Each structure stands twice: as structure tokens, then as C-alpha cells.
């Protein structure tokens, strides 16, 4: 690759991202419009400064559309699942049922905005916890804006070892780590350690946004206990079984939070009347009660099914092997820029395995839930039609934004702009780069919407940089994926999932603005921790 890595080229590579951020945060544009402008600028910088040709741009656009389709299918199936529950008024039952099991409103917010999302992240991921969590939080009285923010934070800690460690496996693959080796376990340890730090920060942030004044002490035992169970459990299990190191602690925390509702300090009704994130009148206005004959377990039927189907398909090897045989992807030719940056030809780019994909689990769970609710008379005449019409109409606007963002990231990657961004930072800063190492992971997830993609994109780069700087490569890789996990909270494509199901599409800038106040300090802290641990050796 002969791309000049200088300040001008770095600025040109960063330009689409900074414009995207300014439009979202400063001018409060919706992601659909901002993504279109970002994409146009990306194409222009590719032609004018990175010597891309029309063929390369066309190929990367096609790759982007194909890469976006699995995300869009998840968006639609997650919304479909939500609409099934909404039509049956299951969320009202969940709201009232959780109120009885957890009379302390703070515990309700923690359970529905963090613990349940962690559980979903452990098995599904791909933005499902955000899409599902937002309407559940609205159901218990959280304002729509914060109903999007809380799940984004809640799912982030499990974003590396969640989805049965898909993102972690991609990091190990990209960096050439052999499963069970000393380097593999060391990198897993550092990753889990950084995520534990992230877990404490986001947990305290979640508690702080709900409480005011001295009420904060009420939430301390709960957030400390949940953080230790989830973050500490993940740290221990990362040295035993990375595949289950997020899922098992998430299951345990789900059980423990329900048990906490019976403790002396949490078993009485309690809430912060002037909490900034609550709008209880909004929750009541949607109806006080769900169907009288629907129990809490019945309201959760689609989610129980989702968990069971996912675990069976992903963990039972013969079933997974059989279903994984059905896979397809498109062939793309080799392309290169005028600087000699080559994208190799592929026979099956980003192969899609429909029967082991999260969207299939969501669709099957939603359909069985629909049949179950309808047979019990909880979905009335015309309800099925309304479910499908609403799910499609809610998916279309966010779908346009997702396609634009993914194409933008593909063009940046295919023209070498992503590599220039990372290399420019490392070349200028030397060992001080370690402070920014997690920001590279965050940047990758912000651009692609996936910690897994970020690890694939930057895993080898982080390893090479660590070796050049002669520092602990395992720790740098850990910072990469931890930064990518934090980045999942500010990824526009994931934010869109939440704003869509919360019915506040167009508010992505407001969501991002509030999240950056939490995620940027958390990423800086991880970078400083990394620098102090290995940069001063």
C-alpha cells in the first residue's frame, strides 16, 4: 500500500465521520439525512484524494448493501416481535408484573434497562437488546429518549463475549490467537478486565440518571452486586469458556435481581418522584391493565422462546452444523485504488446463514408468540394485519439510514481511509497511542455498527502496532475490543434500532449527545489504565 499517511490524508479520511457527528449532535439531524451527507462526502474523498475508480466504488456499494441486509432483517424481526407483544398488550402485563415483583422502581429500571438487555446480549446481540428493551422501558414509565439510552448502555458491557463470543472470536481470528494458548487467555483476561471497568462506570451512570440527591445510596448495593456478578463472572469465565463467559453471568444476574426485590431494603414500594427520566403519566395513558387472564410468564413467552431457540441452535453442535450448511453470499472481483490498496476477490462475501442468524430466532419466536396470543384471544380481529403493516412501516426509515452508514463504512475500508486513520494516530503518538487504543475500537464499531467488524478491521493493526511499540500485545487487543464494546452504545445503526421501536425516529442526535458524556470518559479511563499498566514498563 502506497497511500501517503500524512495530516492532510488523515483529515480527508476523518472528514465524513466528523461531518456525520456534527450533523447528528450539533444540528440534531436524523440519522437518515446525516448518513446520506456522510456517504456523499465519503465518495468524493475516495475519488479526489484516495484514487478510487468507479468500479471500486460500485463494488463497495454492493458489498455495503449486502452487509446491511442482515442488519435490516434483524431490525424488522425485532420490531415484529415488539408489535406482537404490543398488539396483545403484553407490555402492560410485564409493566404491572414487574411492579409487583420489584416494587422498588429503581430496581425495575435496572432490571428492564440493564439486566434483561444483558441476558439478550448474551445470546443474540446484533442490536436486539436495544430494539426490544426500549419499548419495555417505556411500558414502565421511562421517557422514550432515556428508554433508548439505557439499553444501549446496558448491553455494551456484554458486546465482546456476548452473542456466544462472536466478537471475541473475530478478534482472535484477526490477531491470529490460537484458542487456549497463553496469548489467547491473556488477551481474554485483559478484555474482560477492561469491560469490568466499563461495567462499573455504566452501572453508576444508569443509577445516577434515575436518582437525585441522597437517593443514590439506595441503588449502590444493587449496582455493585450486579456489576460484580456480571463483570467479575465474565472475568473468571474468560479463562475457562469464552463462549459462555457473558451468558452465564447474565442469567445469574437476572435471577439475583428478582431475588433482590424480596430483600428488606427493596421490598417496599419506592420511587424518586422527580426523576428526570420518568414520565409515569405517559405509561398510565397507554392503559392501566393488560388482559386480565394473561400472566407475567405468558407475557414473556416470546422472550423465553427466543432464549431457548437461540441456545439450542447455537450450542447443540449437530443442530448448528446441520443448519449452518445453508449459507450463501455473492462473489465480488478484486479491486484496487491508484495507490495500490487492494481488496481481494471473494467467492462468497460475508456469507449469510439464515437459519443460525439472530433474525431467524426473532422471527420464529414472534410467530409462535403471535399464534399463542391469538389462540388465547389476546390478539383481536385485524390484529395480525396491523402487526405486519406497523412493523414494515417502522422498519423502512431506519433501513435507509442503516444502508447509508454501512455503505459509507465499506467505501472507507475499501479505499484505505480506515487504515490511514488508525496508522496516522499510531505514527504520531508513539507509546502515548496506548491511551487512544480503545478509541480505535470505538471508531470501528461506530462506523460499522458491530464490535465484531471492528475487531476484524483493526485486530491485526492493533497487534502490529503493539509489536512495533514493544508493549504487551494482549493488553492492547483487550483495549481494542473493550473500546469496540463501548462503541456499540454510540453506534448510529444501533441507536436507530432503539429510536425506531421507541417511536422517536429522528432523535438520534439527542441520544448520541447524552451517550457521549458517558462513553468518552469511560474510553479515556480504559486508555489511561492501559498506558499506566504497560506504557511505562
Give the topology.
Elements: H1 7-26, H2 31-49, H3 54-87, H4 90-101, H5 105-123, H6 128-139, H7 144-156, H8 162-175, H9 182-210, H10 216-237, H11 247-260, H12 280-285, H13 296-299, H14 301-315, H15 317-324, E1 328-332, E2 335-336, E3 342-343, E4 346-352, H16 358-375, H17 383-414, H18 417-429, H19 433-448, H20 451-469, H21 473-487, H22 492-501, H23 508-535
Antiparallel strand pairs: 1-4, 2-3
Overall, the morphology is: globular
Output the helix-strand order: HHHHHHHHHHHHHHHEEEEHHHHHHHH
Number of helices: 23
Structural class: mainly alpha
Q: Classify the helix fraction into a percent range.
A: over 70%
In order across it, which strands form the biggest sheet?
A: 1-4
Q: What is the total tally of β strands? A: 4
Low-confidence stretches: none
Largest sheet: 2 strands, antiparallel
Average pLDDT figure: 88
Distance between the termini: 32 Å
* Rg value: 23 Å
Task: Give an overview in words.
This protein has 537 residues and is mostly helical. The protein is built from 23 helices and 4 strands. It has helices spanning 7-26, 31-49, 54-87, 90-101, 105-123, 128-139, 144-156, 162-175, 182-210, 216-237, 247-260, 280-285, 296-299, 301-315, 317-324, 358-375, 383-414, 417-429, 433-448, 451-469, 473-487, 492-501, 508-535, and strands at 328-332, 335-336, 342-343, 346-352. A two-stranded antiparallel ribbon has the order 1-4. Strands 2-3 form a two-stranded antiparallel sheet. The longest helix has 34 residues, at 54-87. The model has no long low-confidence stretch (mean pLDDT 88).
Amino acid at each position: 500500500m502506497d497511500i501517503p499517511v500524512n495530516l492532510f490524508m488523515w483529515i480527508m479520511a476523518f472528514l465524513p465521520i466528523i461531518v456525520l457527528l456534527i450533523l447528528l449532535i450539533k444540528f440534531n439531524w436524523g440519522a437518515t439525512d446525516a448518513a446520506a451527507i456522510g456517504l456523499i462526502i465519503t465518495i468524493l474523498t475516495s475519488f479526489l484524494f484516495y484514487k478510487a475508480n468507479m468500479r471500486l466504488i460500485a463494488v463497495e456499494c454492493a458489498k455495503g448493501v449486502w452487509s446491511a441486509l442482515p442488519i435490516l432483517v434483524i431490525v424488522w424481526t425485532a420490531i415484529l416481535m415488539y408489535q406482537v407483544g404490543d398488539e396483545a398488550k403484553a407490555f402492560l402485563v410485564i409493566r404491572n408484573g414487574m411492579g409487583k415483583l420489584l416494587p422498588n422502581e429503581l430496581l425495575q429500571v435496572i432490571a428492564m434497562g440493564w439486566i434483561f438487555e444483558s441476558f439478550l446480549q448474551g445470546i443474540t446481540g446484533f442490536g436486539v437488546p436495544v430494539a426490544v428493551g426500549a419499548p419495555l422501558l417505556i411500558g414502565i414509565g421511562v421517557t422514550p429518549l432515556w428508554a433508548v439510552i439505557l439499553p444501549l448502555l446496558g448491553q455494551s458491557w456484554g458486546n465482546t463475549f456476548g452473542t456466544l463470543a462472536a466478537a471475541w472470536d473475530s478478534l482472535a481470528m484477526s490477531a491470529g490467537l490460537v484458542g487456549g494458548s497463553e496469548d489467547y487467555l491473556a488477551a481474554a483476561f485483559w478484555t474482560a478486565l477492561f469491560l469490568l471497568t466499563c461495567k462499573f462506570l455504566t452501572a453508576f451512570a444508569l443509577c445516577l440518571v434515575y436518582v437525585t440527591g441522597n437517593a443514590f445510596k439506595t441503588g449502590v448495593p444493587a449496582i455493585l452486586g450486579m456489576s460484580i456478578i456480571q463483570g467479575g463472572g465474565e472475568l473468571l469465565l474468560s479463562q475457562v469458556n469464552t463462549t459462555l463467559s457473558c451468558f452465564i453471568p447474565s442469567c445469574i444476574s437476572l435471577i439475583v435481581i428478582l431475588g433482590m426485590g424480596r430483600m428488606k431494603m427493596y421490598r417496599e414500594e419506592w420511587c424518586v418522584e422527580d426523576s428526570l427520566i420518568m414520565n409515569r403519566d405517559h405509561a398510565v395513558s397507554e392503559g392501566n391493565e393488560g388482559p386480565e387472564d394473561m400472566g407475567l410468564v405468558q407475557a414473556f413467552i416470546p422472550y423465553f422462546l427466543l432464549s431457548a431457540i437461540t441456545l439450542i441452535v447455537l450450542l447443540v453442535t449437530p443442530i448448528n452444523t446441520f443448519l449452518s450448511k445453508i449459507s450463501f453470499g455473492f462473489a465480488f472481483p478484486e479491486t484496487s485504488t491508484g495507490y495500490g490498496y487492494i481488496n481481494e476477490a471473494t467467492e462468497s462475501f460475508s456469507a449469510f446463514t439464515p437459519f443460525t442468524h439472530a433474525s431467524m430466532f426473532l422471527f420464529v419466536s414472534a410467530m409462535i408468540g403471535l399464534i399463542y396470543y391469538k389462540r388465547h384471544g389476546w390478539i383481536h380481529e385485524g390484529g395480525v394485519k396491523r402487526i405486519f403493516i406497523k412493523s414494515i412501516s417502522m422498519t423502512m426509515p431506519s433501513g435507509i439510514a442503516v444502508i447509508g452508514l454501512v455503505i459509507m463504512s465499506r467505501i472507507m475500508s475499501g479505499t484505505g481511509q480506515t487504515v490511514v486513520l488508525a496508522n496516522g494516530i499510531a505514527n504520531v503518538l508513539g507509546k502515548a497511542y496506548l491511551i487512544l487504543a480503545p478509541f480505535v475500537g470505538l471508531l470501528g464499531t461506530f462506523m460499522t455498527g458491530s464490535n465484531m467488524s471492528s475487531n476484524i478491521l483493526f485486530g491485526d493493526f492493533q497487534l502490529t502496532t503493539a509489536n512495533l511499540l514493544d508493549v504487551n500485545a494482549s493488553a492492547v487487543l483487550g483495549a481494542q475490543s473493550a473500546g469496540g464494546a463501548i462503541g456499540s452504545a454510540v453506534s448510529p445503526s444501533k441507536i436507530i434500532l432503539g429510536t425506531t421501536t421507541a417511536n422517536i425516529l429522528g432523535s438520534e442526535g439527542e441520544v448520541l449527545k447524552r451517550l457521549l458524556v458517558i462513553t468518552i470518559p469511560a474510553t479515556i479511563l480504559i486508555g489511561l489504565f492501559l498506558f499506566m499498566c504497560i506504557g511505562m514498563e
